[in-house]
């Protein structure tokens, strides 16, 4: 559903299907560059049916993969830019503690990428870990490295800020419109439950729904939909694991699952924890 007064057209330079964080940022930067852009979302916004909802996400330089670590300087700059444009706080620096065995290749890669990109941090032995973070009990033999630049992004607020930015830059956002047909060509025609639109180019950022859109075109991507369970653990000592107590985000590089955690903030007295695959986190 378009906002009252939002520009309405049937022809655009680019149509973006899927208004999660990837699609919203794509539409935002296209509109910012002066391209007539339409962002389509099948569900009424905001919603919790994709992977972009929720109050918080970790942002960090500490990645085992060099290509991710290399992207982060620009990523931080773009988030800072959006924060200034939106006039709302989106990022809170908390630091991140990465735990792992000294022999763990991913832990070694994290240490290497932090050093290569001059990210301020500190190495911890098993003993100094417990002294510095008495609330964290590492596995036997685990050591740690900190990424002081890491922190928490306010996910829902950030998504809304990007979508507001699309409109502010002259783009259109129409939610509650499910795409029912795509006809490729020199001009792409997209039919939705609410109208018919045309564009010179089409970007699909539909997450787990991507293959449903691509199937009629004879295309399929090797995508696997994963359900991520997020848990909230109650603090035994109120406030001990909160952002006000300078408790960091944490990442335990363990097999077969990584463990991610965020300090108590979005729900007072509750620490956010989730388990992730060792591949593609």
TrEMBL record:
GO biological process, one term: L-lysine catabolic process to acetyl-CoA via L-pipecolate
Pfam families referenced in this protein's UniProt entry, alphabetically: DAO
Segments forming domain FAD dependent oxidoreductase: 15-264
Alphabetized UniProt keyword annotations: FAD, Flavoprotein, Oxidoreductase
Statement: the UniProt record of this protein carries the keyword Oxidoreductase: yes
UniProt cofactor(s): FAD
One GO term describing the cellular component: peroxisome
Enzyme Commission number(s) of this protein: 1.5.3.1, 1.5.3.7
Annotated catalysed reactions: sarcosine + O2 + H2O = formaldehyde + glycine + H2O2; L-pipecolate + O2 = L-1-piperideine-6-carboxylate + H2O2 + H(+)
Top-level taxon in the UniProt lineage: Eukaryota
GO molecular function: flavin adenine dinucleotide binding; L-pipecolate oxidase activity; sarcosine oxidase activity
Sequence similarity: Belongs to the MSOX/MTOX family.
Stated role: Metabolizes sarcosine, L-pipecolic acid and L-proline.
Listed name of the protein: Peroxisomal sarcosine oxidase
Organism (species): Chrysemys picta bellii (Western painted turtle)
């Amino acid at each position: 559903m378009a906002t009252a007064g939002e520009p309405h057209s049937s022809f655009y330079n680019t149509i973006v299907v899927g208004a999660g964080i990837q699609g919203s940022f794509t539409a935002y930067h296209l509109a910012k560059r002066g391209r007539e852009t339409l962002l389509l979302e099948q569900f009424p916004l905001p919603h919790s049916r994709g992977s972009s909802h929720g109050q918080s996400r970790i942002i960090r330089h500490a990645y085992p993969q060099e290509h991710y670590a290399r992207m982060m300087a620009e990523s931080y700059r773009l988030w800072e830019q959006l924060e200034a444009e939106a006039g709302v706080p989106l990022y809170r620096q908390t630091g991140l503690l990465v735990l792992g065995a000294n022999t763990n290749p991913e832990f070694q890669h994290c240490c290497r990428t932090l050093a290569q990109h001059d990210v301020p941090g500190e190495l911890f032995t098993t003993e100094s870990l417990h002294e510095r973070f008495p609330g964290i009990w590492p596995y036997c033999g685990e050591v740690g490295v900190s990424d002081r630049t890491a922190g928490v992004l306010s996910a829902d607020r950030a998504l809304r800020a990007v979508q507001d930015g699309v409109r502010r830059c002259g783009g259109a956002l129409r939610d509650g419109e499910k795409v029912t047909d795509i006809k490729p060509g020199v001009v792409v025609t997209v039919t939705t439950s609410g109208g018919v639109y045309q564009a010179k180019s089409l970007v699909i950022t539909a997450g787990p729904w991507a293959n449903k859109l691509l199937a009629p075109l004879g295309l399929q991507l090797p995508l696997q939909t994963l359900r991520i369970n997020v848990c909230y653990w109650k603090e035994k000592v109120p406030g001990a694991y909160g952002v006000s107590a300078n408790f960091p985000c944490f990442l335990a590089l363990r097999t077969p699952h990584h463990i991610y955690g965020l300090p108590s903030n979005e729900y007072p007295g509750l620490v956010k924890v989730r388990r992730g695959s060792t591949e593609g986190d």
